[in-house]
Specification:
CATH topology of the largest domain: UDP-N-acetylmuramoyl-L-alanine:D-glutamate ligase
Keywords: ATP-binding, Cell cycle, Cell division, Cell shape, Cell wall biogenesis/degradation, Cytoplasm, Ligase, Nucleotide-binding, Peptidoglycan synthesis
Shape: globular
Distance between the termini: 47 Å
Helix content: 25-40%
Strand content: 15-25%
CATH class of the largest domain: Alpha Beta
Number of strands: 20
GO molecular function, one term: ligase activity
Subcellular location: Cytoplasm
Radius of gyration: 23 Å
Function: Cell wall formation. Catalyzes the addition of glutamate to the nucleotide precursor UDP-N-acetylmuramoyl-L-alanine (UMA).
Number of helices: 17
Structural class: alpha/beta
Largest sheet: 9 strands, mixed
CATH architecture of the largest domain: 3-Layer(aba) Sandwich
Family: Belongs to the MurCDEF family.
Strand order of the largest sheet: 7-8-6-9-10-11-12-13-14
Length: about 450
Amino acid sequence: MKYISNFRNKKVLVLGLAKSGESAARLLDKLGAIVTVNDGKPFEENPAAQSLLEEGIKVVTGGHPLELLDEDFELMVKNPGIPYDNPMVEKALAKGIPVLTEVELAYLISDAPIIGITGSNGKTTTTTMIAEVLSAGGQKGILAGNIGFPASQVAQEATDKDRLVMELSSFQLMGIEAFHPQMAVITNLMPTHLDYHGSFEDYVAAKWNIQKNMTAQDFLILNFNQDLAKDLAQKTQAQVLPFSTKEVVDGAYLKDDVLYFRGEAVMAAQDLGVPGSHNIENALATIAVAKLSGISNRTIQESLANFGGVKHRLQYAGQVAGVKFYNDSKSTNILATQKALSGFDNQKVILIAGGLDRGNEFDELVPDLKGLKRMVLLGQAADRLKRAADQAGVSYLEATDVADATRKAFDQAGPGDIVLLSPANASWDMYANFEVRGDEFLATLAELKG
């Protein structure tokens, strides 16, 4: 860890706790900043705030008083999920106070070079794949960032012999200034989080921040299946290395069911440990990073063949009576569910879908639903999904929650069939997050096994 002096004796406001805010507060305190933490949760219900106060860090809880910003703060570090139209953030910006996220702090103190991964879908899987392949090749890949490990905490423990493999959300990337990865991957760009960003253009601009400080010595890995990526490739100082499943490119690509890197066959697509065309894209991005890092083909082959996926992202969860169960609770949009279905024979799939109603219909999902054995629908979006199922000619059942849906799906399945939880919707109508939703699926499967 670099003990930088950037924040010494500076008044810093950490807005919002959760894991990243708590980590940022402790790091800033360690670096000599005068830290105040502001979190909306009441103090008596806020163990993180209680712990920080015990360590001598000032905490203000139970609300966000605007007058707090009259205390001459020189910097705000905000939780990525807090939008920029939040009154506290707006007042900070109006006063000329820089507003950062904790990934900026991680960069400033990290001894380890950083590989940054962002995109609309596939971030978590690609980040995990890259870390595992690098580690298998003797270059310790350490997971950090949006994947659940606060970057500012992980960076404190990383050495110059490690590689910080950092998943980055658009929210995090809006709060950077100097952040500079040596390699970066953009898996794909689709219209998501528009309620936060306001427009697709602003969302893309936030993602594109990942490369803003990269130079001609750095590598930017882009998905050339998308024309948008080809256009963006003309607008960076970094060396662009493309990947594609549709054409031969000067990078990583799929040809005749074999994954190549610059003309060299690396492995057969069928040997990947996880199904689906989207996972071929994730593997190609991983191969690009691995080959640029000097990892051997044999190590890449063995790592990707043994890769078992990520919890809640097309996770193989086990089987009962010959029926296989896949937990894809992290599929919170239509594209993610389309990609999940692409890895299976629809005739054998009972799909569990539904969740928060965001007002969109599912017409574009209809072609991917055709041929399904059955659907089990739940949540606010069930009626909209019924219309899609009717268009696709698929019969369906309704369920009260994921546990009920899992049992009903199993009742409809026979040996060789697949029960797939891939909701195509956010979870917030019924569950705190997609992890809780996926955990209920796994717990119900455990009951079925018992």
